[in-house]
Write a structure and sequence with these properties.
The complex is a heterodimer of chains A (280) and B (156).
Chain A lengths: L6 E3 L4 H13 L5 E3 L3 H8 L9 E4 L9 E4 L2 E5 L4 H7 L3 H8 L4 H4 L4 H6 L8 H6 L3 E6 L2 E6 H4 E2 L1 E2 L6 E8 L7 E6 L10 E7 L4 E6 L6 E2 L1 H7 L6 H9 L14 H20 L3
Parallel strand pairs in A: 1-3, 2-3
Antiparallel strand pairs in A: 4-5, 5-10, 6-7, 6-10, 8-9, 11-12, 12-13, 13-14
Helix pairs in contact in A: 3-4, 9-10, 10-11
Chain B lengths: L1 E8 L2 E8 L4 H8 L18 E4 L2 E4 L12 E3 L8 H8 L9 H14 L5 H8 L9 H17 L4
Parallel strand pairs in B: 1-5
Antiparallel strand pairs in B: 1-2, 3-4, 3-5
The chains are: A alpha+beta (280), B alpha+beta (156).
Bound molecules: flavin-adenine dinucleotide (FAD) and FE2/S2 (inorganic) cluster (2 copies).
One FE2/S2 (inorganic) cluster binds next to loops of chain B.
Chain lengths: 280, 156
């Protein structure tokens, strides 16, 4: 049982959601945007995080948040689309693949794309394809709506202004069907948090890499990409250089020691490079 | 802090007084006396609490009752003599039975939504439920028999 009480609001437009947030904020209710709600519910139940929340604003009845389709040069996915739906959509196979390895199928019927990339959990594997493809986010808030490159607002975490929420994710069409690999390694079971996830795409210029389960947050690193694309060096040398450029210490926890993760990282990078450099 | 929610449960219109913080699992069990949905982990991990919301499987511990206003819920109490219930009996798909209602709801949805599910889809869906008695082979045989029956066109 969730020990605290909170109000539940279900606006049907972006404007109503933002205004509701502002009013609840003024009333001191510490409002939270509520999407799939799975993280909010499970963390509130154990009284961890979100404990000052006295009101939630469910954004799933906002039509824009549930939209999928093409607009100009982008494929748009509403922030409230559940991962299980993305898994079967087939339009962006890399995102479909990453979503299909988050949680289990029934939970994915509820977990949303927006919720995964904004969550507190360190893995957030759905963000990797968005970082690799320089996707944009449509963000709504008290000062209106804006399209923002994901790299501008995502640095370890999604950094939104107070009262803002993500309405849609905009993926450049040109990246939807580029060659890719994505490998999620877990300690034992297929369904588990990631020991290491490496997603990569091949563009005309180079291979891009993004990681989850390696450090305390998901990331894409331009420095590591440069090292890994130095074709004049052996693959082993490139990987050694890239590991020296990690943005933060390698995780050392119950899923795997830092030494084991490094071993798995080396092998996974070798396989990824072999597969994508082999692609014509 | 209580409010009224109207929804359909097992084809009956219901009106319940809830806290907005109540999960569907709590409301079903404690207010409606429908104890077929089981609390296991209450964390989304075990699937014992699975019900159908608008015919889709959902973990009732991961949903607020407030989210289900005007929607249609089916619990194990709403299934009667379905092919999957018979298959669980015929194939010994349970031991202690704690996970059974969750498995049956998920399998029932799979059989209805994907009657021609392939091996990948079956694994993908069924991995949402955990059986502490580890009767997985029997459970798989039960669902396979229903999917095959459906393929043969001999069951609803
Ligand atoms: C059984 C289970 C297994 C899991 N396994 C994995 C896994 O393997 N890998 C993994 O990465 N994660 C996993 N998760 C975690 C899950 O992906 C995250 O907790 C995610 O945040 C849940 O999404 P949601 O839509 O339910 O989010 P919610 O609970 O609705 O929200 C989570 C947070 O994001 C914010 N938020 C949500 N949507 C938006 C938006 N559009 N704009 C701004 N802020 C927003 C909310 O305010 C809140 O702070 C698992 C979760 C469960 C229940
Ligand atoms: S009780 Fe809901 S998944 Fe375990
Ligand atoms: S039959 Fe005992 S938990 Fe599955």
């Amino acid at each position: 049982m969730i020990p605290i009480n909170f109000e539940y609001h279900r606006p049907t437009s972006i404007t109503e959601a933002v205004e509701t947030f502002q009013q609840l904020q003024l009333d001191g209710k510490g409002p939270l945007y509520f999407n799939g709600g799975t993280e909010i519910i499970t963390l509130l139940r154990v009284n961890q995080f979100y404990t000052n929340t006295r009101a939630v604003i469910d954004i799933k009845a906002i039509p824009e948040c549930c939209y999928t389709g093409f607009e100009d040069d982008h494929y748009i996915i509403g922030a409230s689309i559940p991962l299980a739906q993305i898994e079967t959509m087939g339009t962006f196979p890399l995102l479909g693949k990453n979503c299909s390895r988050i949680a289990d199928h029934t939970s994915r019927m509820k977990i949303t794309l927006g919720g995964n990339i904004c969550g507190k959990i360190k893995y957030r594997e759905a963000v990797l394809p968005l970082l690799l493809t320089d996707s944009e986010l449509t963000i709504a808030g008290p000062s209106g709506q804006r399209h923002v490159p994901i790299h501008q607002v995502f640095d370890q975490h999604m950094n939104l202004e107070q009262g803002e929420f993500i309405v849609q994710i905009r993926i450049p069409k040109l990246f939807l069907d580029v060659p890719f690999t994505s490998k999620k390694q877990t300690k034992i079971d297929r369904i588990s948090y990631s020991l290491l996830t490496v997603s990569a795409i091949k563009t005309e210029q180079q291979i891009r890499f993004a990681f989850s389960g390696l450090c305390n947050f998901p990331f894409r690193s331009q420095e590591m990409e440069k090292a890994l694309n130095q074709c004049q060096l052996s693959v082993e040398e490139r990987i050694t250089e890239a590991i020296a450029l990690l943005p933060s210490p390698i995780l050392n926890d119950l899923h795997g020691s830092a030494a084991y993760r490094t071993f798995v990282l080396r092998n996974t990078l070798e396989e990824t490079i072999a597969e994508l450099e082999g692609e014509s | 802090m209580k409010k009224t929610i109207d929804f359909t449960v097992n084809n009956e219109q219901k009106s319940v007084q809830i806290r907005s913080a109540d999960t569907l699992l709590i409301t079903l069990r404690e207010q409606l006396g429908l104890t077929g949905a089981k609390p296991g982990c209450e964390n989304g991990d075990c699937g014992a609490c699975t019900v159908l919301v608008d015919d889709q499987p959902m973990k009732s511990c991961l949903m607020l009752t407030a989210e289900t206003a005007n929607r249609s819920i089916t619990t194990i109490e709403g299934l009667h003599d379905t092919p999957i219930q018979k298959a669980f009996l015929e194939h010994w798909g349970f031991q202690c039975g704690y996970c059974t209602s969750g498995f049956i709801m998920n399998c029932h949805a799979l059989a209805n939504i994907h009657p021609d599910a392939n091996a990948y889809e079956i694994e993908n869906w069924l991995q949402s439920n955990i059986c502490r008695c580890t009767g997985y082979e029997e459970i798989k045989e039960a669902i396979m028999s229903v999917l095959k029956t459906k393929e043969a066109g001999t069951s609803g």
